[in-house]
Amino acid sequence: MKTILGLTGSIGMGKSTTAEMFRDRGIPVWDADATVHALYSPDGPAPALLEAEFPGSTLPDGHVDRAHLRKLIAEDATVLDRINAIIHPLVAESRAAFLENADGLVVLDVPLLFETGLDQHCDKIAVVSVDAETQRERVLSRGTMTEADFEAILSRQTPDAEKRKRADYIIDTSAMDVAQDAVDHIIAELT
User: Fold this and answer.
1) What region does 30 belong to: left with phi over 0, alpha with psi -120 to 50, or beta?
2) 142-172, pLDDT tens digit by residue?
3) Share above pLDDT 90 across residues of the chain, in percent, rounded to a whole number
4) Residue 110 neighbours by CB under 8 Å, 6+ apart
5) How far is CA 147 from CA 13, 132, 154, 158, in A?
6) Could you give the CA distance from residue 61 to residue 42 in angstroms, rounded to a whole number?
7) Over the chain, what HEC string results?
8) Is 108:7 a contact under the CB 8 Å cutoff?
9) CB 8 within 8 A of CB 113
10) 96 φ, ψ to 5°?
């Protein structure tokens, strides 16, 4: 029997680290971000599809020019929906293949689990969470985005408080040993 655990959390909450804790315990994890990254690679299908829809959206080396796409999205809000219409079916194919080949407890690591309605396809939901100040420090210390970028991402995500209300499990990542204990508890309960 398969039990699907949806794992989600807003940016900077520690979701990737928590997903790795499940992997380390032998639990299969499908990672939405890694899937998108692979789709966007020069060998993936996304560059050609995005270039056809948005000329100039790929770099000479075949990578998707994410900065160019961000600029287009900032100029026209419909661009994000058009990108999603290209990428989401490819992501869904990958997820379906993973689920078809998995058994027992499996984890779907999806940042936008609630926003995409994928929570409806999960047996249980775990939300990774930390206080807002720690979240902001984690994200901005990466040096990969501005405060405005961070706020823009947060505005597209279900607020942490709402995610927590909808969760079966809340994994506090303010201390990694506490997070690991929570992961171990979830595994014990669901296997």
Assistant:
1) beta
2) 988 888 888 888 888 889 999 999 999 999 9
3) 83
4) 6, 7, 8, 32, 116, 118
5) 16, 14, 11, 18
6) 7
7) CEEEEEEECCCCCCHHHHHHHHHHCCCCEEEHHHHHHHHHCCCCCHHHHHHHHCCCCECCCCCECHHHHHHHHHHCCHHHHHHHHHHHHHHHHHHHHHHHCCCEEEEEECCCCCCCCHHHHCCEEEEEECCHHHHHHHHHHCCCCCHHHHHHHHHHCCCHHHHHHHCCEEEECCCHHHHHHHHHHHHHHHC
8) yes
9) yes
10) -65, -40
- For 177, the token pair is 């040993």
The residues, any chain, with a CB within 8 Å of residue 1's CB and separated by 6 or more, are: 103, 104
What token pair was written down for 159? 């607020």
Q: Which residues of 23-42 are buried (b: 16+ CB within 10 A; e: fewer)?
A: eeeebbbbbbeebbeebbee
pLDDT (average), residues 80-105:
94
The answer to whether 46 touches 170, Cβ cutoff 8 Å, is no
The position carrying tokens 């794992």 is 7
Domains defined for the chain, CATH in brackets: 1-28+105-191 (3.40.50.300), 35-101 (no CATH)
Surface-to-core class of residue 155, CB atoms within 10 Å of its CB (0-12 exposed, 13-18 middle, 19+ buried) = exposed
Average pLDDT over residues 66-94: 92
